[in-house]
Amino acid sequence: MGIVTIGRKRSEVREDHPWNVSEERRALLGTNYLKRGDLLKIVLGSKIHRAYVTSRDPDYIGSVFIDRDLMERAKLWEYERVLICNVDNGERWETYALPAARGSGRVSVQGAGARLCEVGHCLIILAFQVSERPVEPTMVLVDRNNRFLEYLDGSDRSLETADAPEVQLSGH
């Protein structure tokens, strides 16, 4: 193992660390190791577009409860960090997502974020990921009752099923 100095503290670097794996070993393992110099970017991974606040509670410790169906459609994980943008007043804040009852249409803002919105406000809920390659985000549009309408252009539709009802939007 090699030794690397970080500030005043010395720590060991594992030989199998991605930066220390040879091209031959990468090919043999079939592993997508990052190489020194690879560029990582933070890119959009998931988006719930135009969700409406159904309730708020500033005395809760934090988070946003989102209908489990919407979380699954948008590929959001429980406790995943999300950026919330309030379309009505321009406020933005970060918190984490928790699932609400499936099919409830619930989008309930908790904790300090509840002071940045009102019931009925329109939100955009975003989650990002780190990648060395471009990704196709999963973006869903919901109706006024927070029910899934459609995947937005450019969305990863791998959760879409053949028996899902088609919804026609007027004027779109």
Please count the helical segments. Answer: 2
Q: Class by helix and strand content?
A: mainly beta
Strand content: 35-45%
Q: Would you state the CATH class of the largest domain?
A: Mainly Beta
- H/E element sequence: EEHEEEHEEEEEE
Unreliable residue stretches: 4-11, 161-172
CATH fold description of the largest domain: Barwin-like endoglucanases
Report the mean per-residue pLDDT as an integer.
83
Can you summarize the main beta sheet?
Answer: 9 strands, mixed
Q: What is the rounded Rg? A: 21 Å
CA-based shape: elongated
Give the count of structural domains.
Answer: 2
Strand order of the largest sheet: 4-8-5-7-6-9-3-10-11
Oligomeric state, counting identical vs distinct chains: single chain
Helical coverage, percent range:
under 10%
Q: Which architecture name of the largest domain does CATH use?
A: Beta Barrel
Report on this model:
The chain is mainly β and 172 residues long. The chain folds into two domains: 8-38, no CATH class; 41-151, Barwin-like endoglucanases (Beta Barrel), CATH 2.40.40.20. It has helices spanning 23-29, 68-74; strands spanning 2-6, 9-13, 41-52, 55-57, 64-67, 81-86, 92-100, 107-110, 122-131, 138-142, 148-151. The protein has a nine-stranded mixed sheet. A two-stranded antiparallel ribbon has the order 1-2. Strand 10 (138-142) and strand 11 (148-151) form a beta hairpin.
